[in-house]
Design goal:
19 strands, eleven-stranded antiparallel beta sheet, mainly beta, single chain, four-stranded mixed beta sheet, 271 residues, outer membrane lipoprotein receptor (LolB), chain A, 10% helix
């Protein structure tokens, strides 16, 4: 198996014992402005991600019927993502060069997950029309306030995630939440689950969580906001897997168009 990847808002302002409800038009305008900032931020994120390389540590686990670990493998890769085209539809190429690649000696099937560093593509201007968005109550974390945005895939629209099973690819219809800096539109964390059951394909549950954090580089005045960890958990009626990807040791990277790179294409899928 390979993974590539409303209720109405009510805002109350409290002061001196009085309360007001923000008009619906103002609520929608505020959300639209935030989504616009986030779309710009995600576009900038892709540019930044394409200019760095890092070390990716991948932990693959498979659990038995009672939750006991049946297999646990740790691999390391030199990792980079390339964005070769400049069109409106993101076309990304993910490259992994093995530093230490583990293989199961127990003939145990393991989950292969990739592309989750870019799960925030849900907020890219190309994909935003494929989802409905709702702003929930803000979240306080580490002394900062984040806008909490719930998203829901619109059936039949393009989605940036797919399940590969027995040589075929099936688009994933996702729902979830993201924590976003309301001032900059930067996504700090995003989590997703299946919106529509796929038990007819044997997929019982799917959950992912991806975190992002600021990264600085010598002789660079700007700060990059890059993936730090992605967790993917999948279960069928009889099997249960969990993969954890950790991204560390970032370095600035450049590649000429004539240089050959071993890549796996992360191709957007339409439902």
């Amino acid at each position: 198996m390979r993974f590539k990847r409303n209720h109405l808002l009510s805002v109350a302002l409290l002061w001196a014992g009085a309360s007001w409800t923000l008009p619906l038009a103002a609520q929608n305008r505020s959300l639209d402005e935030l989504l616009n900032r986030t779309g710009i931020s995600v576009t900038r994120f892709l540019d930044q991600l394409g200019s760095v390389t890092c070390r990716e540590e991948v932990l693959q686990e498979k659990f038995g019927p009672k939750g006991k670990t049946e297999e646990r493998l740790q691999s390391s890769f030199d990792y980079l993502v390339l964005e070769p085209n400049q069109g409106s539809e993101p076309a990304l190429y993910e490259s992994r060069q093995a530093v230490k690649e583990a293989h199961s000696k127990k003939n145990v099937s393991l989950l292969v997950s990739n592309g989750f560093a870019t799960e925030l593509l849900i907020f890219h201007p190309y994909y935003q029309p494929s989802f409905t968005f709702e702003r929930l109550a803000d979240v306080q974390m580490d002394g900062n306030s984040y806008a909490q945005i719930h998203f829901l895939h619109v059936k039949g629209r393009p989605t940036p995630a797919a399940l590969q099973l027995r040589g075929r690819e099936y688009p994933l219809s996702l729902a979830g939440t993201a924590l976003i800096d309301p001032a900059t539109g930067i996504v700090e964390r995003i989590s997703t689950d299946l919106e529509i059951s796929m038990e007819d394909l044997g997929l019982k549950s799917f959950h992912s969580e991806v975190g992002y954090a600021p990264v600085g580089f010598p002789q660079q005045t700007k700060t990059y906001w890059l993936p730090t960890e992605a967790t993917v958990e999948v279960s069928t009626l009889k099997q249960h897997w969990k993969n954890v990807h950790r991204f560390t040791n970032y370095h600035l990277f450049s590649v000429s168009t004539s240089q050959e790179v071993d890549v796996n294409k992360i191709k957007p899928k339409e439902q």
